[in-house]
Amino acid sequence: MPPKSILVATIGTRDLAFRVSNGEWHNLGNDRSPDGDTISEQALVQKELKLEKCDFRLLTEYFVESWEDYKDCLQPIILGKLLADKHQNLGKIYLVATNQPDNIAAEFRSKDTLYAARIIKLWIEQHHPVSIEIIEQGINGENPADFEQMFRWWKNTWREIGRTLPEETKVILCLKGGIGQSAEASRVTALSRFGEDTYFYDFIQDTKLNRRGEPSQYTQPFQGTNYLWERKQKESLALLNRCDYAGVWRILLPYWRNSQDDKILKIRDLLDAAIGWNRADFQGFAQGIDTLEQSRLQSWWQKAYESAYLGVIRFKQGNTIEAFFHSFRAVEGLITEWVIEQYRPHITYIRQQSGIVSPALTRTVCQDSQFPELRNFQWIFEPRNEIYLYGTKLDNILTAKFPKINTNPDWQYFFRHTREWRNLIFHRLLKLEKEEVFQAWKTNTQREWEERVLSFLNFISQQHFSSLTEASLMSQIHKLLEQAIISYEPQNNRF
To answer: How far apart are CA 62 and CA 49, in angstroms?
Structure first.
C-alpha cells in the first residue's frame, strides 16, 4: 500500500472567512473597499465584533484567543474543499505562515499569517483527524519578499520535511498564498527536492460562493512530471544515445506510474524490450516487440545478428571486452544454431553435472544418407557417441559442409587466431584497446570489423544484410523509442 500523501500550504491573508450576523461570510484579509465608498470585508468583521480598528495580524490573534466563542463562524475559505476531499489520504499537513520580528516595518508585519495558520490548524483538528505542523517564515529575520533568501529558506525547509518521508510519497502543494517571491521560490525548490512526486493545486476564486460559505473550487493538479518534462526528456535522449536503457527507465518511471496514457505506456514497453536486449536476454526482448518482429526473432539466425549488434553498441560505449565477446559469440553461436538447424534429427540435449543442458550432435548423423558430407567424419566423435557443439568440433562440421572454407583465409584466421584471442582475453585479467579488437579480427577499423563479422553471419545464415544495424531488430526499436520520447507530451493524471 503506497504511503499517505503530505500537504504543504502557504497561508495568505485571504485564506480565512468569518460569518457575520446576517449569515454572510466575509474574507478576513480583504481590506479593500470594493467601490471606494463602502467599507471592506475586513472592516465589516471588525464592526460586527465592535473591535477597535486593527490589522490582520491582530484580528486573527484575537480569534485564536477567542476560538471557543467563534469556532463555528470561521473556516478556511480557500483550502476547505480540498481538505474535505483529500483528508483521508493525508498523512500530515504543513501550514507555512509568516511571523516576522518586531523590528520589521509595521506595514509588512501587520499582514503576518501566523495566527491565521493557527486558526486553520484548530479548524482542521476539529473536522479532520490529520497531524498538522505550522512552519514559521521570517521569524529569524529572513525577508519573504527576497527571492534569493526564500530560495535558501525553502531548500532547508524541504530538506527537513523530506527527511523522514517514505519513497513515492506524493506531495500536494498549495503555494499561491503569501508573498509572490516566496511562492515562486517554493515551487522551484519543491521540484528540485521532490521531482515528479509533486502535485500543484490552484484555486478558483468565486466571491458569490464564498459569501455563501462555500469554499473555493480547486483545479485538477498540475504534476511535477509536467513541469520537469523538458529537462527529463533531454536527459533521457542523452542516455538513449549511449543505449543506457535502464537509465532512461529510471528517469521516465514516474511518467507511467499509475498512468493510462497509451503513448507513455508504449515507451515503457519499448524500454522493457530494450533492457532485455541490453542484457542479451533476447527471449525477453522478443516479448516486448511487435508480432511480425517476434516472428523474425524466432528465426534460428536472428539472435546472432542481435548479439553482433550488441557488440557494436558495447564498442560505442567504450566497453571493448564485451564488444569482442559479443561479436565472437555471435559467429560461434550462429555456427551452433546452424548445426542444430541443419542436423536436427540427430541433435540431443544432455544435462551435465553442473545442471546445464547442452545440445550435442550424435554419431548417428554419419550413417544418415541425407548428410553425406559427414559420412567420413566419424573420427570427430571419438571416444564418445556424441559431441558438444562448441570449439573446434564446430569448425570440423562447418568445413565438412563447406569445403571451400578450408582455403578461405578469413575463415582460417577466425578458427585459428580469433578463437585464440578469445581464450587469451577471457582467461587473463587483461584490458583490451580498441585497436586490439580490430587486430583480433584481422581488420584495421571499426567499419572493417563490423563488415568482417557481418560477412561470417551472412555466409552461415544465407541472408543478405548490408550492415549489422540493418540486420538488428533492436536498431529499429531504438529509433521507435527515440521518436516516441521526442514526440511525447505528458498529460495530467487524475489524483
So the answer is: 11
Beta strands 5-10; 90-98: pairing state: parallel
Q: What's the pLDDT score for residue 392?
A: 87
Closest CA to 162 of 94, 73, 261: 94
SS3 letters across 127-152: HCCCEEEEEEECCCCCCCCCHHHHHH
* Sign of the alpha-carbon dihedral angle for 206, 208, 213, 214: negative
Q: Are 157 and 135 in contact (CB under 8 A)?
A: yes
Q: Rounded distance, CA 245 to CA 99, Å? A: 49
Nearest partner of 48 among 28, 76, 71, judged by Cα: 28
Q: CA-CA distance, 16 to 76, in Å (whole number)? A: 5
* CA quadruple 38, 120, 97, 147: dihedral sign: negative
Sheet holding 16-19, edge to edge: 25-27, 16-19, 74-76
Per-residue pLDDT tens over the stretch 207-243: 899 999 999 999 888 877 777 888 889 999 999 999 9
pTM, full prediction: 0.69
R_g (Cα) of the chain, nearest Å: 36
* Cis amide linkage into residue 383, ω under 30° from 0: yes
What's the grid cell of residue 465?
544484410
CA distance 191 to 222: 12
